[in-house]
Amino acid sequence: MLLHRPVAGFAAGKWALPGTFLHEGERLKEAALRAVATKTGVSGRAPHQLRVFDDPTRDERGRVLSVAHVDLVPERRLPLREDTTLAAVGADMALELPGRQRRLPYDHDRIVRHAVRWVRARYRAAVDPDHLLPDEFTLYELRRVHEAVAGEPLQKDTFRRRFEDQLEETGQVSSGSVGRPARVYRRR
What we know:
The chain has 188 residues and is an alpha+beta fold. It is built from 4 helices and 9 strands. The chain is elongated.
């Protein structure tokens, strides 16, 4: 999960999800893209609207609704900066924040848990639905991506059986690795 640390405002100095207020005439998706681009440097994405978080006590500044969005981005496309960091979420939904910070501001911990459940459900049902891998990959590479999303190891044979009907072999094998070359697949 990509977090940013604002230098000013209510959450200054704390790691938080990138967010913003909606400008007049702006669509929610446009605001989400603007917030992520200006606060983390990530652009050119297509976020999914997750849900509305509307607990009246979620923000000490007053009544603020959050329309959360989620997007998965390959780590190689993240322009990590001094004011951004990656935080892991374990299988048990425990958030591993940098430094001494234990919680995210507002109800961002709740938003993260909801987003993680949503993403994990997508990855239990489909082969890399967010295309974190290139078009062709080995089963090992695919399983590693799914393990990263699940936050835990996945049993090799069970994983293969779960997704084999969604894959087609390319007829090629991987090269440059130790051991027997692995078959290369693509999404069906």
